[in-house]
Amino acid sequence: MVKPTDPMLFDETGELGVQITRLAAIMACLRDPETGCPWDIEQDFASIAPYTIEEAHEVADAIERQAWGELEGELGDLALQVVYHAQMAEEAGHFDLVGVLKTISAKMIARHPHVFGAESRVKSAAQQTEDWEKIKSAERAAKAEAGVLDGVALGLPALTRALKLQKRAARVGFDWPSTREVVEKITEEAHELVEARDALGPEELAEEYGDMLFVMVNLGRHLGLDAEACLRAANGKFTRRFGFIEAELAKAGKRPDQSDLDEMDGLWNAAKRAGL
């Protein structure tokens, strides 16, 4: 057992293997029942999972903003999450970090026979994607995942999971042939949403709203667009334009709550004209 005073914990000069070992040892020290950090000791898989998701999103955010100076740190935060879960798993007797690394290495080699095996590398990206899906299907079969939708993680962001579910269903022919049918379905769902708003309760309204979102994801898929990425971009655009509104109001000595919709809408249009 490494002690908190062990010099290896403070070695910033070592190469990859040394640094992986160092991080794992730091986590083991933090989780030590006698000398560790009280907060870290109290955590479990369920309590840490939200942080794991948050760190993954922060990596994506740094990439979206092309904040390369921040990305190194964000990737480190995400790596810590892997080590954290592996440490808890080792304590529970499930597996350890070595097993995690060996498993993913073996998976990558098995899924890339055109790189690590005898298969030809002369393939299109589309053919490689098809082969990848065949390998993944075989893996799901080995796990006794018989259903088409089995194995699509429940913890994914809802838009991402909707896209994955739709792709799985489309592989077996459960899909509209063109965007025309999808747009028609959106119109139908919009009418049902309005009817629910006017005549039904909150549960039915939420259900109809969910149906609308699900079909919107499907339209994006048919158009070759990722709903999650498109919504992130829309969020960014909204943030930029609203920031413009705040800045312009501040020039007049005002805050948004001291303005009105007409004035702010005019500033919003000015932001659009400015290319924000």
SSE layout and pairing:
Blueprint: H1 16-30, H2 38-42, H3 45-64, H4 68-92, H5 97-111, H6 113-116, H7 125-142, H8 158-171, H9 179-199, H10 202-222, H11 227-251, H12 261-273
Family: Belongs to the nucleoside triphosphate pyrophosphohydrolase family.
Protein name: Nucleoside triphosphate pyrophosphohydrolase
EC number: 3.6.1.8
What does this protein look like?
- Among the domains are: 7-111, MazG-like (Helix Hairpins, Orthogonal Bundle); 229-273.
- The protein has helices at residues 16-30, 38-42, 45-64, 68-92, 97-111, 113-116, 125-142, 158-171, 179-199, 202-222, 227-251, 261-273.
- It is mainly α and 276 residues long.
- It contains twelve helices and no strands.
- 71% of the residues lie in helices and 0% in strands.
- The model has no long low-confidence stretch (mean pLDDT 89).
- The radius of gyration is 25 Å and the shape is globular.
- α1 crosses α4 (68-92) and α9 packs antiparallel against α10 (202-222).
